[in-house]
Amino acid sequence: MKFDRIKRKRGLAKRGHEDLNLNQSPRKEQVLVLLIIGSFLWGTTASAGAPAMFQGTDKGRPCSLYVHREQEQAGVYEVEVSTSYEHNGQGLGKIVLTFDPNSGGKILQWQDPKTKEFLKVVLKNESESLSEPSGFRLKWMHFDHLHDATCSELKPTGAE
Description:
Strand content: over 45%
Structural class: alpha+beta
Distance between the termini: 61 Å
Order of helices and strands: HHEEEEEEEEEE
Oligomer: single chain
Radius of gyration: 26 Å
Helix content: 10-25%
């Protein structure tokens, strides 16, 4: 009798909530809702720090270069980047590029001498940072074979 009266009081008996858990307080439900809303809002503000993105094409397909972090230490410029290239969920991941000393400020590069993987980013103009990339060339190891890609005509997308 008490069960039906409580259900009716909450207006739930009419809506088909026969399996109502009366031990769950409305306060717990409010806290849960606030927690879910708060985590959603935190996620949207966290995405405001998204990496800068440059988008280009590779044989007509879109390709991207993401800039995660830039720093200069002891006069050496470093930039942490990743690309949109992956195969079966595996890609190169984040890597740190430095200027090729023989490029005159036009090529940022990373190379792994053991695996022959590399990423070279060509800049439109001589620069001291990754401000205007024109394209990049990438080779990366996927299990027992190398993937090769060339992304050109890079333009900033405004995801900064």
